[in-house]
Amino acid sequence: MSSTSNDAKSTIHERDIPSLADQSVSSQTETCRTELSFCLPTSLAFFKRLTWEQTPWIGSTANSVSANPINMLDAQTIAQYLNSHLPQTVTVEAIRNAVLFGSTYPASPTTITASPSPSEDISPICTSPHLFIIFPHAKGHTTSNPSFLRPWHDAIVAPAFNRAWRDSFLTRIHGAEPDGLTRILAPTGTHTSHDALPAAGFLSHLQNGAPTCVRTQWPAWTTDNWGLGVEGRDSGARARVLDEAWDAMCGMLKSYPGMEAYRDPVLLAVSRARIYVAGDEMNMAGKVRCVVQEWDKVVDARFVRSGSFKVVFQSVAGVVEVEEENEEMPRVWIGDATGRNFKRMGEHDDEGVDGRGPDGDRDVDGHRDKRVRKSGDGAHAD
């Protein structure tokens, strides 16, 4: 760099420094993605396929961000935008202490009961929408409280879970109902191979600090008629069975002694899947639609609070570098030095100035401009 250039930069006045705003004449969104979307389901039937997370105290991550428990920043965002859709106020602390109840999973899962290692936070079970249960009136860390976990598992969830499997007709039912009319032995009730195990074994994981997640599946209906792996005409059965299960759980919470602080539960669905959408080529409604279409693959939109679905987008925008065009500026000549008449080169005015024709222009001294005029004899100059 020359010394002249350095001297110019060292002596420039502050007001003469070019601004970034001058360079931001045009900009474009280079990338736009979401890693957080959420809504308020009204029932377990919101999910077409649902796990039951039986060790909800074990943390998990999705895309290197805490998925369970819900981190502070996400909890603040969720509380800010969802409280207007709820009959009671839900605090950030209550969202942070929400119990991970389950997760959706692909229509053809491999082994969803296996626990992914901490490094496998992009597996389908981690990036699929999670279902949390918020207890607005409870205090403290619910997921690590054995006095809550034992009755919650054994007396609230397990009976609804077992009944859902029996009502699904997707598994063989053994035994007889206690009020059955035809009996050989004294009826001991019915059971299936999917009946829930007691909480005692899972609580030993909590006491021993075992890092292994344990989960099972709620009933899921699948039709293979077209190889699509969807529930087809069984959507009604799934909606009925899971909706009745949620109603039963809420009813047990109202009447079970010692569980008063856990009444009025709120369902919260959260997805931390990373979804990229178009930048400037798509408006905001189109971007939201792209995310909603991913949810539609695994949820039933009939069971969600209207207007509660929210998407948090992250956009990176940059200034578009505009190349200067080196177009030659049009030349002009002044027909009247007083500024009354400006003409571009090549323009003609048969009337001239003051109606005196093209050769009637005079300068400020009153001299006639010299022009080349064509005549029949040739070219002459005045």
UniProtKB/TrEMBL annotation:
Residues 1-25, 344-382 are annotated as: Disordered. Residues 353-382 have a biased composition (Basic and acidic residues). This is Uncharacterized protein. The lineage of its organism: Eukaryota, Fungi, Dikarya, Ascomycota, Pezizomycotina.
